[in-house]
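Incident log, support desk, overnight shift.

02:14 A customer reports that sequence design results differ from what the structure should imply. Their input is reproduced verbatim below. On-call engineer (initials T.W.) acknowledged and began investigating.
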Protein backbone atom coordinates (compact mmCIF):
# COMPACT_ATOMS: atom_id res chain seq x y z
CA UNK A 1 0.00 0.00 0.00
CA UNK A 2 1.12 3.57 -0.72
CA UNK A 3 -0.56 6.85 0.26
CA UNK A 4 0.23 10.26 -1.23
CA UNK A 5 -0.31 13.37 0.94
CA UNK A 6 0.24 16.97 -0.17
CA UNK A 7 2.12 19.24 2.23
CA UNK A 8 0.45 22.29 3.78
CA UNK A 9 1.93 25.78 4.13
CA UNK A 10 2.74 26.83 7.72
CA UNK A 11 4.41 30.11 8.89
CA UNK A 12 7.68 29.54 10.76
CA UNK A 13 8.76 32.59 12.73
CA UNK A 14 8.20 36.00 11.11
CA UNK A 15 9.94 35.48 7.78
CA UNK A 16 9.69 31.85 6.64
CA UNK A 17 6.82 29.74 5.30
CA UNK A 18 7.35 25.96 5.23
CA UNK A 19 5.54 23.04 3.65
CA UNK A 20 4.66 20.59 6.43
CA UNK A 21 4.48 17.00 5.18
CA UNK A 22 4.45 15.20 8.53
CA UNK A 23 2.25 14.87 10.52
CA UNK A 24 -0.56 14.95 7.94
CA UNK A 25 -4.20 13.95 7.62
CA UNK A 26 -3.59 10.22 7.37
CA UNK A 27 -0.27 9.62 9.13
CA UNK A 28 1.50 11.03 12.16
CA UNK A 29 4.73 9.01 12.18
CA UNK A 30 7.02 7.08 9.82
CA UNK A 31 9.09 4.90 12.10
CA UNK A 32 10.05 7.34 14.86
CA UNK A 33 10.07 10.28 12.41
CA UNK A 34 7.21 12.48 13.65
CA UNK A 35 7.69 15.85 11.92
CA UNK A 36 8.94 17.10 8.54
CA UNK A 37 9.07 20.68 7.27
CA UNK A 38 10.37 21.53 3.77
CA UNK A 39 11.45 25.17 3.39
CA UNK A 40 12.42 26.94 0.18
CA UNK A 41 13.93 27.19 -2.27
CA UNK A 42 13.68 30.89 -1.42
CA UNK A 43 15.76 33.84 -2.61
CA UNK A 44 16.72 35.56 0.65
CA UNK A 45 18.75 38.33 -0.96
CA UNK A 46 18.04 41.50 1.05
CA UNK A 47 15.84 39.51 3.45
CA UNK A 48 16.52 38.18 6.97
CA UNK A 49 16.28 34.55 5.84
CA UNK A 50 15.59 32.05 8.60
CA UNK A 51 14.85 33.68 11.96
CA UNK A 52 13.70 31.25 14.67
CA UNK A 53 14.28 32.66 18.20
CA UNK A 54 15.29 30.49 21.18
CA UNK A 55 12.60 27.91 21.90
CA UNK A 56 12.41 24.67 23.93
CA UNK A 57 12.11 20.97 23.11
CA UNK A 58 11.49 17.77 25.07
CA UNK A 59 11.26 14.13 24.04
CA UNK A 60 12.71 14.41 20.52
CA UNK A 61 15.70 14.80 18.25
CA UNK A 62 15.87 17.59 15.68
CA UNK A 63 17.50 16.69 12.37
CA UNK A 64 18.54 19.61 10.13
CA UNK A 65 19.34 19.03 6.44
CA UNK A 66 20.26 21.81 3.99
CA UNK A 67 20.17 21.68 0.21
CA UNK A 68 21.18 25.34 -0.25
CA UNK A 69 22.23 28.18 2.07
CA UNK A 70 23.57 28.37 5.59
CA UNK A 71 21.90 28.27 9.02
CA UNK A 72 23.51 28.95 12.41
CA UNK A 73 22.42 26.67 15.26
CA UNK A 74 22.92 27.85 18.86
CA UNK A 75 21.73 25.91 21.89
CA UNK A 76 21.71 25.90 25.68
CA UNK A 77 24.62 23.44 25.75
CA UNK A 78 26.81 26.19 24.29
CA UNK A 79 26.84 24.80 20.73
CA UNK A 80 27.38 27.45 18.04
CA UNK A 81 27.46 25.70 14.68
CA UNK A 82 26.81 26.84 11.11
CA UNK A 83 25.46 24.05 8.92
CA UNK A 84 26.15 23.87 5.18
CA UNK A 85 24.55 21.73 2.45
CA UNK A 86 25.46 18.06 2.73
CA UNK A 87 26.15 18.31 6.47
CA UNK A 88 23.97 17.13 9.36
CA UNK A 89 23.00 18.75 12.65
CA UNK A 90 21.25 16.42 15.08
CA UNK A 91 20.16 17.71 18.49
CA UNK A 92 18.82 15.42 21.21
CA UNK A 93 16.51 17.25 23.60
CA UNK A 94 16.12 14.47 26.16
CA UNK A 95 14.44 15.97 29.23
CA UNK A 96 14.90 19.54 27.97
CA UNK A 97 16.97 21.84 25.73
CA UNK A 98 16.53 25.18 23.97
CA UNK A 99 18.01 26.41 20.69
CA UNK A 100 17.76 29.03 17.95
CA UNK A 101 18.20 28.79 14.17
CA UNK A 102 19.14 31.86 12.14
CA UNK A 103 20.60 32.68 8.76
CA UNK A 104 24.02 34.37 9.11
CA UNK A 105 24.23 38.05 8.18
CA UNK A 106 26.61 37.25 5.32
CA UNK A 107 24.51 34.49 3.75
CA UNK A 108 24.16 32.91 0.30
CA UNK A 109 21.20 34.10 -1.80
CA UNK A 110 19.25 30.81 -1.76
CA UNK A 111 17.79 29.00 1.29
CA UNK A 112 16.43 25.46 0.90
CA UNK A 113 16.25 22.52 3.26
CA UNK A 114 14.41 20.16 5.59
CA UNK A 115 13.76 20.22 9.33
CA UNK A 116 12.76 16.90 10.85
CA UNK A 117 11.97 15.53 14.31
CA UNK A 118 12.46 12.04 15.69
CA UNK A 119 10.37 10.93 18.68
CA UNK A 120 12.58 9.52 21.42
CA UNK A 121 11.58 6.11 22.80
CA UNK A 122 10.82 5.72 26.48
CA UNK A 123 14.37 4.49 27.13
CA UNK A 124 15.91 7.78 25.91
CA UNK A 125 13.39 10.57 26.40
CA UNK A 126 14.66 11.65 29.85
CA UNK A 127 18.34 11.37 28.98
CA UNK A 128 20.82 14.27 29.03
CA UNK A 129 20.54 16.64 26.05
CA UNK A 130 23.22 16.42 23.35
CA UNK A 131 24.27 17.94 20.03
CA UNK A 132 26.14 16.35 17.13
CA UNK A 133 27.44 18.01 13.96
CA UNK A 134 28.57 15.79 11.08
CA UNK A 135 30.47 17.58 8.31
CA UNK A 136 31.15 14.37 6.32
CA UNK A 137 28.57 11.66 5.63
CA UNK A 138 28.81 8.38 3.70
CA UNK A 139 27.80 8.35 0.03
CA UNK A 140 26.88 5.68 -2.51
CA UNK A 141 26.82 6.51 -6.22
CA UNK A 142 26.12 4.90 -9.57
CA UNK A 143 25.44 6.32 -13.04
CA UNK A 144 21.83 7.20 -12.18
CA UNK A 145 21.84 8.09 -8.47
CA UNK A 146 23.86 9.70 -5.72
CA UNK A 147 22.83 8.69 -2.18
CA UNK A 148 23.97 10.49 0.98
CA UNK A 149 23.09 8.53 4.12
CA UNK A 150 22.25 11.08 6.82
CA UNK A 151 20.82 8.64 9.40
CA UNK A 152 20.97 4.85 9.61
CA UNK A 153 22.18 2.47 6.89
CA UNK A 154 21.44 2.10 3.19
CA UNK A 155 23.18 0.10 0.45
CA UNK A 156 26.08 -0.78 2.74
CA UNK A 157 26.77 2.82 3.89
CA UNK A 158 26.20 3.67 7.56
CA UNK A 159 25.86 7.16 9.03
CA UNK A 160 27.65 7.98 12.32
CA UNK A 161 24.60 9.95 13.50
CA UNK A 162 23.56 8.87 17.00
CA UNK A 163 19.90 7.87 17.15
CA UNK A 164 17.86 5.85 19.64
CA UNK A 165 15.65 3.72 17.41
CA UNK A 166 16.09 1.88 14.11
CA UNK A 167 15.86 4.62 11.47
CA UNK A 168 16.80 5.62 7.94
CA UNK A 169 17.22 9.10 6.48
CA UNK A 170 18.87 9.51 3.06
CA UNK A 171 19.17 12.27 0.45
CA UNK A 172 18.97 10.87 -3.10
CA UNK A 173 19.70 12.72 -6.35
CA UNK A 174 18.39 10.91 -9.43
CA UNK A 175 19.47 11.50 -13.02
CA UNK A 176 17.53 8.47 -14.23
CA UNK A 177 16.19 5.27 -12.72
CA UNK A 178 17.69 3.07 -10.02
CA UNK A 179 16.67 0.33 -7.60
CA UNK A 180 17.66 0.28 -3.94
CA UNK A 181 17.42 -2.41 -1.28
CA UNK A 182 15.44 -1.51 1.85
CA UNK A 183 14.52 -3.27 5.07
CA UNK A 184 11.33 -5.30 4.87
CA UNK A 185 10.37 -4.46 8.48
CA UNK A 186 10.64 -0.70 7.87
CA UNK A 187 7.84 1.58 6.79
CA UNK A 188 9.13 4.31 4.44
CA UNK A 189 8.16 7.72 3.12
CA UNK A 190 9.55 9.87 0.32
CA UNK A 191 9.44 13.67 0.06
CA UNK A 192 10.62 15.24 -3.20
CA UNK A 193 12.71 18.40 -2.83
CA UNK A 194 13.45 19.04 -6.53
CA UNK A 195 11.69 17.91 -9.70
CA UNK A 196 9.17 15.09 -10.03
CA UNK A 197 9.99 11.49 -9.09
CA UNK A 198 8.35 8.11 -9.52
CA UNK A 199 8.62 5.67 -6.61
CA UNK A 200 7.49 2.12 -7.41
CA UNK A 201 5.37 3.64 -10.16
CA UNK A 202 3.73 6.37 -8.03
CA UNK A 203 4.41 9.93 -9.22
CA UNK A 204 5.28 12.46 -6.51
CA UNK A 205 5.93 16.19 -6.93
CA UNK A 206 7.87 18.66 -4.80
CA UNK A 207 6.47 19.14 -1.28
CA UNK A 208 4.26 16.03 -1.24
CA UNK A 209 4.93 12.93 0.86
CA UNK A 210 4.45 9.35 -0.33
CA UNK A 211 3.98 6.76 2.43
CA UNK A 212 5.02 3.14 1.80
CA UNK A 213 3.93 0.40 4.21
CA UNK A 214 6.32 -2.34 5.47
CA UNK A 215 6.91 -5.45 3.42
CA UNK A 216 9.00 -4.06 0.55
CA UNK A 217 12.54 -5.26 0.01
CA UNK A 218 13.35 -2.95 -2.93
CA UNK A 219 12.27 0.48 -4.14
CA UNK A 220 12.35 1.57 -7.78
CA UNK A 221 13.19 5.29 -8.02
CA UNK A 222 12.99 7.32 -11.24
CA UNK A 223 13.92 10.93 -11.95
CA UNK A 224 15.38 13.36 -12.75
CA UNK A 225 14.61 14.54 -9.23
CA UNK A 226 16.00 14.95 -5.74
CA UNK A 227 14.26 13.36 -2.77
CA UNK A 228 14.65 12.49 0.90
CA UNK A 229 13.87 8.93 1.97
CA UNK A 230 12.64 8.27 5.53
CA UNK A 231 12.29 4.88 7.13
CA UNK A 232 12.00 3.04 10.40
CA UNK A 233 10.39 0.26 12.38
CA UNK A 234 6.78 1.39 13.14
CA UNK A 235 6.82 3.41 16.38
CA UNK A 236 4.24 1.85 18.70
CA UNK A 237 4.55 4.13 21.76
CA UNK A 238 1.75 6.66 22.29
CA UNK A 239 2.70 10.29 21.62
CA UNK A 240 1.21 13.57 22.75
CA UNK A 241 2.63 16.33 20.51
CA UNK A 242 2.02 20.03 21.14
CA UNK A 243 4.04 23.06 20.02
CA UNK A 244 7.72 22.02 20.38
CA UNK A 245 7.13 19.18 22.82
CA UNK A 246 6.82 15.42 22.29
CA UNK A 247 5.51 13.69 25.42
CA UNK A 248 3.23 10.91 26.60
CA UNK A 249 0.58 12.82 28.56
CA UNK A 250 -1.22 16.14 28.93
CA UNK A 251 0.43 16.65 32.33
CA UNK A 252 3.93 16.39 30.85
CA UNK A 253 3.09 19.06 28.28
CA UNK A 254 1.65 21.39 30.93
CA UNK A 255 4.73 20.96 33.12
CA UNK A 256 7.13 21.63 30.24
CA UNK A 257 5.23 24.77 29.21
CA UNK A 258 5.21 26.09 32.77
CA UNK A 259 8.95 25.42 33.15
CA UNK A 260 9.68 27.28 29.90
CA UNK A 261 7.52 30.29 30.72
CA UNK A 262 8.98 30.47 34.26
CA UNK A 263 12.52 30.49 32.90
CA UNK A 264 13.47 27.47 34.96
CA UNK A 265 16.89 25.88 34.57
CA UNK A 266 15.38 22.87 32.80
CA UNK A 267 15.89 24.37 29.34
CA UNK A 268 18.96 26.51 30.04
CA UNK A 269 19.56 29.61 27.93
CA UNK A 270 20.82 30.18 24.40
CA UNK A 271 23.88 32.48 24.09
CA UNK A 272 23.48 35.68 22.11
CA UNK A 273 20.90 37.60 24.10
CA UNK A 274 18.04 37.01 21.64
CA UNK A 275 14.61 37.15 23.38
CA UNK A 276 13.11 33.67 23.73
CA UNK A 277 9.91 32.67 21.98
CA UNK A 278 6.91 32.58 24.36
CA UNK A 279 4.78 29.46 24.40
CA UNK A 280 1.26 29.78 22.97
CA UNK A 281 -1.74 29.24 25.26
CA UNK A 282 -2.71 25.65 25.87
CA UNK A 283 -5.96 24.46 24.26
CA UNK A 284 -9.05 24.47 26.45
CA UNK A 285 -9.47 20.71 26.02
CA UNK A 286 -7.21 17.97 27.34
CA UNK A 287 -4.37 16.90 25.03
CA UNK A 288 -4.68 13.23 24.08
CA UNK A 289 -2.43 10.74 22.28
CA UNK A 290 -3.14 10.52 18.55
CA UNK A 291 -3.04 7.26 16.57
CA UNK A 292 -0.15 6.69 14.16
CA UNK A 293 -2.52 6.66 11.20
CA UNK A 294 -6.17 7.07 10.28
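02:41 Re-run completed on a clean worker. Output:
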Amino acid sequence: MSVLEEGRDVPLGRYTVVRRSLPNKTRRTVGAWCFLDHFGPEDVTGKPGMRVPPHPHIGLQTVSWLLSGEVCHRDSLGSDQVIYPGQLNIMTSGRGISHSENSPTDKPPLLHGLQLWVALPESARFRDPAFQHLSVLPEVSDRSAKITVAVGELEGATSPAEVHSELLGADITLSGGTEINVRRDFEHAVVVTEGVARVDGDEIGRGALLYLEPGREKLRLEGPARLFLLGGVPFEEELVMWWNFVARSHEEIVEAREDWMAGSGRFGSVPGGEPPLPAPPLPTTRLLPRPRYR
